[in-house]
Amino acid sequence: MLELLVRQMGDQLDACGATVEIGAMPALKTIHGLLDSIFQNLFTNAIKYRSDQPLEISVYAEKTGSEWVFSFTDNGIGIAPEYHERIFGVFKRLHNDPDVPGTGIGLAICKVAVEKMGGRIWVESDGVEGQGSKFTFLLPLMAPENPALHPAGESRTRRRSQISH
Predict the structure, then answer these.
(1) Which CATH number fits the domain that encloses residue 62?
(2) Distances 50 to 11, 64, 90, 117, 133 between C-alpha atoms, Å
(3) 119: part of which helix (H) or strand (E)?
(4) What is the Cα–Cα distance from 101 to 61, expressed in whole angstroms?
(5) pTM for this structure?
């Protein structure tokens, strides 16, 4: 899934000299398109709000107890701590730069998608340019109230490469 998304966003990632590292990802059956939507919005924001450095993105998942812990890290401009909760609201853009397109709904979509699967999402960032942000979201291994979420095994592929076509 993530490899396909990276290929689809290849031109945008190439344009900013991005390096993408994807760790082992679980194969999950989820409500159609929710995980895709989460990652697409996180990649899009990483590209939009990158620093002057070449963009670096890392995506990992780890099984801990009864949850999958997903982390998405970039080296972008960061988000000041006082905005960590606000950014997940609808139409809550922190940057009013007319040169940066967007409506302020991407992270709200992420939050709704994660919550629909029985999880939660948050961001860690000091708001220092170049140190970026780390978005973490938890999803239950099996949520009885959400039968659409079932673990279907784990992928063991790892890769670190410059995105190129």
Answers:
(1) 3.30.565.10
(2) 16, 30, 21, 29, 10
(3) none
(4) 29
(5) 0.78
Task: Give me the number of domains the chain comprises.
Answer: 1
- Two tokens, residue 163: 């995105």
Of how many residues is the chain composed?
165
Name the CA radius of gyration of the chain, rounded. 15
The pLDDT profile of the chain, 165 residues, written as one tens digit per residue, is 788 999 999 999 999 899 999 999 888 777 768 999 999 999 999 999 898 899 999 999 999 999 999 999 999 988 888 877 778 876 455 555 555 455 568 899 999 999 999 999 999 998 887 789 999 999 998 644 444 444 443 333 333 334 333
- Of the candidates 122, 124, 114, the one whose C-alpha atom is nearest the C-alpha of residue 146 is 114
CA 49 to chain centre: 13
Distance between CA atoms of residues 123 and 22, nearest Å: 19
**The domain containing residue 48 runs over which residues?**
2-162
